[in-house]
Amino acid sequence: MRRRTVTAGNLEEFLEATAPAQAADQPQAPPQAPAARPATPQDHGLRTEFEFELPRGYVDEAGTLHRHGAMRLATARDELRPQIDLRVKENPAYLSVVLLSQVITRLGTITDVHAGIVERMYATDVAFLQDFYRRVNSEGHTRAAVVCPHCEGGFEVDLSGGRLGES
Questions:
Q1: At 75, is the pLDDT very low, low, confident or very high (cuts 50, 70, 90)?
Q2: How far apart are CA 46 and CA 21, in angstroms?
Q3: Is the CB of residue 138 less than 8 Å from the CB of residue 154?
Q4: Is residue 75 a contact partner of residue 67, using CB atoms and an 8 Å limit?
Q5: Structure pTM?
Q6: CA-only gyration radius of the chain, Å
């Protein structure tokens, strides 16, 4: 028996192909237009994209500085895909470059963030993004508990990069 993999993209095609055939004596219903899908995704209370501000910023070939960006939650596929990447097999340290390039959705005006861009980032920014990735995907938020070195008072800060005093 042959197995067939079904993805969301070909689900309708699969259902049509496997639907029982209508009897010849039954009148066929006219084809209906597919139901309209909502223009915006439903809000289930799950935040899937997080804004950030890089400590130094990425400077592109034109000399433009990009500091603000967005990172989406990682999927299992995002974490598995780098394992078969030849660059990661040759150099396991490259895993974070490939992984970050998959989950960063925007960096300034750049919407096509690829491994080459992450490679050219300053080490400070890559370390920031690695920590940001861990916080977002492990803990589900971008807040961190800190202690003031002067008064030893505890409070939370948002690592996503807002200016001091802003909420």
A1: very high
A2: 41
A3: no
A4: no
A5: 0.59
A6: 23
Q: Among residues 132, 130, 134, 141, which one has the least CA distance to residue 47? A: 141
* pLDDT score, position 16: 59
Q: Find the mean pLDDT for residues 20-43.
A: 50
**What is the distance, to the nearest Å, from the Cα of residue 65 to the centroid of all Cα atoms in its chain?**
22
Q: Is 18 helix (H, G, I), strand (E, B) or coil?
A: helix
Q: How many CA atoms lie within 13 A of 38 on its CB side?
A: 4
69 in Cβ contact with 108 (< 8 Å): yes
Does the structure show a pLDDT above 50 at 115? Answer: yes
Tell me the per-residue pLDDT of 40-52, one tens digit each, with 9 for 90 and over. 555 566 788 999 9
Q: Tell me if 121 sits within 8 A of 57, measured CB to CB.
A: no
- By C-alpha distance, which of 64, 66, 68, 65 is closest to 52? 68
Place of tokens 């223009």: 39
CB atoms within 10 A of CB 95: 16
- CA-CA distance, 65 to 56, in Å (whole number)? 9
Q: Max Cα separation, the chain?
A: 86
